[in-house]
Amino acid sequence: xMSLPQELDHLRIPFDDIKSATSxxxxxxxxxxxxxxxxYKGRLPSSTRSCEPGTxxxxxxxxxxxxxxxxxxxxxxxxxxxxxxxxxxxxxGFSDEGNEKVLVYKHEVNGSxxxxxxxxxxxxxxxxRIFLGAARGLEYxxxxxxxxxxxxxxxxxxxxxxxxxxxxAKISDxxxxxxxxxxxxxxxxxxxxxxxxxxxxxxxxxxGILTKESDVYSFGVVLFEVLCGRFAMLGxxxxxxxxxxxxxxxxxEKGALQEIMMPNLLDQMDPYSLEVFSDTAFQCLNExxxxxxxxxxxxxxxDTALRHQLVSYLNFLKxxx
Length: 321
Hints:
By secondary structure, this protein is of the alpha+beta class. The protein has helices spanning 15-21, 67-82, 124-143, 202-207, 212-228, 244-254, 263-266, 271-284, 295-320; strands spanning 30-34, 37-43, 56-61, 91-95, 102-106, 149-152, 161-163, 169-171, 178-181, 187-188, 209-210.
């Protein structure tokens, strides 16, 4: 079992401070139930040294049942303490007193992306900006964390993309992450494939070999979630509608992708913006890993889609003058 280095002691927060911040984990402060335990909103005392006074925080109280949870807890701390980027969630601190294991993050007021998939209040331009921010976060993990290695997230999904007050995307939940060398094609795992059903790379499941392209596949699923306004998997169906990845491929082959897109987005979209976006997203879902784009190319594709959308909107405004 890995242990935390002393260099991270400055991030330790007394458990009594966390109880005070959340009114002893009062249900009125309950934000939601994550995969590792309940999450609460709170405000830490001004004496807490790891954050500025008045900082709103999200407190994840881990449901510790077995060693795997403890490993994920430690991995999350190490990852977020080691790697900083505008599009990664900010770790404020942690507590591991007794049987309590708590992670404390900066609270992102707009919650997670999965809660906004079907929202008609998010324009196509806003959605593209969210995509671009999340893609830049993954691009950093895959190629910007240091010479000779990369971070593979392993659980990219819409619920793990948080949104701040300006709707800027923040990648979260690094408990399943792996660090792999950049001078090898594959990172081999001795365990079964991890991730979330509906998002996980089929090749990763079939052969048990993890690559950065596995994250790319999962991100492609998220792109279509936000385009279509629905989750990656819907349990009430037993046909091609159950898995979004299969559904979009089915409609792509028919040339009818617009049939499953959010109707309110169609009137907003510049046609070339949609074309570039959908081409990029479909490449992410390619069965052949070698044909999937790098996150650098995904960022470029999404940036191109956004620029064309902005030009189209400016032309629309000029024509109204």
